[in-house]
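Hi all, long-time lurker, first post. I run a small reading group and we've been trying to get comfortable going from sequence to structure in the token notation. Rather than ask abstract questions, I figured I'd post a concrete chain and ask someone more experienced to write out its structure so we can walk through it together at our next meeting. Sequence below, copied exactly:
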Amino acid sequence: MLPALALLVSFTAATTQSVDPSASEMRFPLERFQADLGALQRKYAIPLSKEDHARLRNFYSTWSSTVEKDPFDSMSQAGQVDAVLFRNYLKHSIKRLDQEATREVEMAPILPFAQTIVALEESWQKMDPIDPDKTASTVNGLIKEIELARKAVEKGIKIDRSIANRAVAMLQRVRHSFARWFEFYNGYDPLFSWWVSQPYKEAAKALDEYTNLVREKLVGIKPDDKTTIIGDPIGTKALQDDLDDAMISYTPAEILDIANKEFAWCEVEMKKASHEMGFGDDWKKALERTKQDFVEPGKQPQLIRFLAEEAIQFVKERDLVTIPDLATETYRMSMMSPDRQLVSPFFLGGEEIQVSYPTDTMSHEQKLMSMRGNNKHFARATVFHELIPGHHLQGFMQERYRPYRGLFDTPFWVEGWALYWEMRLFDMNFPKTPEDKVGMLFWRMHRCARIIFSFGFHTGKMTPQQCVDFLVERVGHERDNAAAEVRRSFSGGYEPLYQAAYMLGGLQIRSLKHELVDSGKMTEKQFHDAVLHENAIPIEMVRTSLTKSPLKLDFKPTWRFYDRP
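-- Answer (accepted) --
Happy to help. Here is the structure in token form:
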């Protein structure tokens, strides 16, 4: 039984308020929810299982009903913020289950046999006794079902390429899950092994061959193809739903307008830097010169270390944000593999900065593209973005301030914080040379472009190849790096709004800084520390918390944070 939320709230209030006046009454309920959710997600993890979906829906709905009955008005500001976020999270989670169900229906023509595998796994999940003879017949029948599906594909089943590509990914998940089911019994139950081993091997082989057929016939790519980009556009309505859930009070069209205005600003600044370099308005020539200034092979780690320490010193000297000694002591570095660089051509980071740079296994052209794309001046912006005051400092603080809010993690706060520092340090003359300015402006333009091409793709206005061309022609990317960037965006590892979150989150924090710091209500250090102490929540809720604005449980986002004419 789910304990009454009100009892947990009362217990929290009695035990924490005297210790920490800012403590949220929702902390214990949220920690309990996350523990319970983790247990359910580990238990109910069968691909395409309607029973698993129903169990999670019931879980979310039960908690949602409890939150609606909670004594919201008597909570502290922090508790109200958490209650609003929790309510929003639960509604979004239920909506996501609905979306998953719709997407599964779209894939159903390619997966007519899947429920046979699901039924086997659901029986295993319930720990039902197994009848090896009957199970062998079921698996043997599965082979025939796969054969019928294969014939349907060969005859030319009509289905959208992106849906077929999604189905390939689902087939791979089903195949892995099917193997897990078999391995549970095989060798431990002698009769099972005797009856089922051979039918399973044939079914697994048929499933692998069918997956390859779908990939080649319906998606149009070979099994070993690691470069073709397909993606899965979600449409304008789904983008709007995601913006609402992220508490961004703009339409997709308005977001695109913001991106284009910021892109135009970047072009103006690029031309200023280009003039300083002697290239006049031809900023792409200035960009080309900047790309040629890279370190020789083997020297990139030393450059990263130097740039990291330079940024830390710059921020400390100006007392912009609290930087604990342990944070500066514990960041680490690793080198990215060639395969990883196919989807991440630039640095990744956090506590460990992952360096993208060519290896001896790459072709000559690939090496040059990687070196040019990770030159000294591009790296000067990416290093502090990934480390301090960017993601590493951010993650360090997340583990120490309101960590229970990890449930509400949003890229608008995570990526927005790091991008905000690119804006702030640019304004504070951190770039020492026009080449440094070009390097920082390149990334800022890149984040505008991410909105333009990702929204263009998801609304059906741009193909993946057009997205690559846009990055090459308008931003100045190396073509392989542009392809890797688009592949990263549409491979399924990132939510559709993720690429928009950098620029939009940065603009939100910048607007909030203007509201609270430039007006004299807070010092810059107080502001930056306060944002970090709120943890990774939608920035409109950070604003609500820092301004002590009144809240209602059915809060709707209204903040219009962008004001560039």
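A couple of things your group might point at:
Residues 111-219 form one domain.
The chain has three domains: 5-107, 111-219, 238-547.
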